[in-house]
């Protein structure tokens, strides 16, 4: 098979946060496949380049479509937001490969890394991810709420900084509040909590509070929530986690 | 004060993985401050731009130096590898602000996000970070080994994918082996383990094994180690973590 498939991420939003490697992959593609708003971030680069826009809820269909196009000899780029390997399209592509046409396993498939939302959100406020950290998607579309609770507890007991992706949506308005209740049972109420909306775009907005005051209604689909470790603190107008632990 | 300080990351190595925003910040600087090998990644951009290269072990001195230059009216860029907020210079800059000249708190300080090593390493092998994951630095220069053990245990019990930064150095040859012993007491021996050396550079090299077979001597300072979750698996020549958990 002579086609190819590259999975890329646009970064958090601003064109200046898309890597040159991703721009180059997009420029070479015959076909771009992705969720409409992500494709809209990409200026027209090439006459005859086809855009296949789809809804956000059909990752696996989108992945299959992209693989079929590549198998037919097209040079396909699958466009995610952020980094394609973090709660995005790269895993969906390999899921589709696993259950799909065995010939897809011989395709030229490549992933290009990008700037994921958590890094852009951290940069907006200082350096809250300066220590050990974890990233948890709060969506229970693909995993059970009990798994999410187990991970939140583990992250709290391990004193990780916690980045929450997909903290809330219209279909899931209550889960972030439940997560805060759970975290308050382990972590200090004074722990810094950051709500960073539209990080890495020109509309970025930060709300800084504490775990004791944090409210589930402070986030929506475009918000990344960061909950500090025990050492995370404020200096001037910045929040950061020192590299050194207390007493070390 | 009229100076400024921007903390940037070059990404994992290849020029094509440095964001345009970071390139633009570097192009505007009067002074670049950083560890020598990171500065060497940056082509000369501007006549009269000063480069202040230093050793890797003196982050706090380097941060103070950069802040002094900014306070004196210079436009300073502090150059990290990867993303500056992940086990890199951004936290060191805010540590220096916290204990330094109170006037530094009024400086124009900004962080530019970048592509951190874990994302580049994941992209080399597929999508191992496709589920919830955590990042742990295995260096005990700034925190105790007991804290690291506590976090490894929490990450294993939470069934996170685990990315290990700084897995080994000449001064710390034994810790990765100890980490594997600890993880084997909780996680299945068949769990995929990836050693990705020089990810995101032209010399990238991947060794794929299992937790049962993983050996601490397989990593050095330039290696990023990824340990799968219970769902992480191989398809074709790729390793990935499905978004969907078993049975969900």
Automatic annotation (TrEMBL), chains A, B:
SUPFAM superfamilies: Tetrapyrrole methylase. It comes from the Bacteria. Residues 5-212 form the Tetrapyrrole methylase domain. Pathway: Cofactor biosynthesis; adenosylcobalamin biosynthesis. GO terms for molecular function: methyltransferase activity. Transmembrane segments: none annotated. Keywords: Cobalamin biosynthesis, Methyltransferase, S-adenosyl-L-methionine, Transferase. It holds the Pfam family TP_methylase. GO terms for biological process: cobalamin biosynthetic process; methylation. CDD domains: Precorrin_3B_C17_MT (cd11646). This is Precorrin-3 methyltransferase. It comes from Enhydrobacter aerosaccus.
């Amino acid at each position: 098979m002579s086609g190819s498939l590259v999975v890329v991420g646009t970064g958090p939003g601003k064109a200046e946060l898309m890597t040159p490697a991703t721009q180059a992959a997009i420029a070479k593609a015959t076909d771009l496949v992705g969720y409409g708003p992500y494709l809209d971030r990409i200026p027209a680069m090439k006459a005859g380049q086809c855009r296949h826009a789809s809804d956000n809820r059909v990752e696996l269909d989108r992945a299959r479509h992209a693989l079929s196009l590549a198998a037919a000899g097209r040079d396909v780029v699958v466009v995610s937001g952020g980094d394609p390997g973090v709660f995005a399209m790269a895993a969906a592509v390999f899921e589709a490969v696993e259950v799909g046409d065995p010939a897809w396993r011989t395709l030229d498939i490549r992933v290009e890394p990008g700037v994921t939302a958590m890094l852009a959100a951290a940069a907006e406020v200082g350096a809250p991810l300066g220590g050990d950290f974890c990233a948890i998607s709060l969506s229970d579309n693909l995993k059970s709420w009990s798994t999410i609770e187990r991970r939140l507890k583990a992250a709290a007991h391990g004193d990780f900084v916690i980045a929450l992706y997909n903290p809330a949506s219209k279909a899931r308005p209550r889960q972030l509040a439940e997560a805060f209740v759970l975290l308050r049972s382990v972590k200090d109420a004074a722990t810094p909590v950051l709500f960073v909306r539209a990080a890495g775009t020109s509309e970025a907005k930060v709300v800084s509070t504490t775990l004791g005051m944090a409210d589930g209604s402070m986030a929506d689909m475009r918000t990344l929530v960061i909950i500090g470790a025990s050492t995370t603190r404020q200096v001037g107008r910045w929040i950061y986690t020192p590299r050194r632990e207390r007493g070390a």
